[in-house]
Amino acid sequence: MVILAGIGVVALAAWLGWGNWQRNGRRGKVALLEVIRFVAVAMLTFTLLRPEFVRRIQRTEPPKVAILRDASGSMQTRDVVSTNNIITRTAWIDSQNKRAFWKPLEAGSEVLVGAFAAPPDLTVTNTLGQAREIGTDLSSALGSVLKQQRNLKAVLLLTDGDWNLGPSPVGIATRYRDGGIPVYSVVTGRDETIPDLAMEEVAAPAYGLFGEQIAIPYTVQSHLPRDVAT
């Protein structure tokens, strides 16, 4: 119905242009103006019809679901209550992996299980190529999966949520949203900070002179429930 209305508008514009050209003595300038007017009406009608180019892509490989497990140092914190014991965050995730909770997903998808943010092996003498910085880089982990897997359906993050390395995950999360790929997260660990002392900042000088004292300012944050005199 809409296409017929568009054809009718274009035909009406052509008929009016032809009649106007006839009434003005079939002059060349009038013909040029009527042709321009007809082309403008035709292009406007074509635009209002919102034409679309549809290309159907048939994928032969099944969609993929990536399960990423956080292997950073913060996952060794013992603050997860399991039955009557307090275990580490890594131990809790390992217990979930042993249950193979992703089995129902394998019915219609290919499940990929992997770890990220693993600290470098300090026992290896040749450390060439290992990560120089230790921390949790969520942006790089999500970015590498998005780059390597073409038919990605969803991503599940098993982490404590402590992002402390690399760029902000907001940028890569926006790319996932634009691609229609959901990212789910299962967060482990306590909601509040565990009672402990944390060294927040150390400003060490770049160089020092032999025999001279060096002042190294630092900041220690207390998360203890009471004040401690030192």
UniProtKB/TrEMBL annotation:
Cited SUPFAM superfamilies: vWA-like
Does this entry carry the keyword Transport? no
Residue stretches spanning the membrane: 29-49
Alphabetized UniProt keyword annotations: Membrane, Transmembrane, Transmembrane helix
Q: What is this protein called?
A: VWFA domain-containing protein
Question: Which species does the entry assign this protein to?
Answer: marine metagenome
Q: What is the lineage of its organism?
A: unclassified sequences, metagenomes, ecological metagenomes
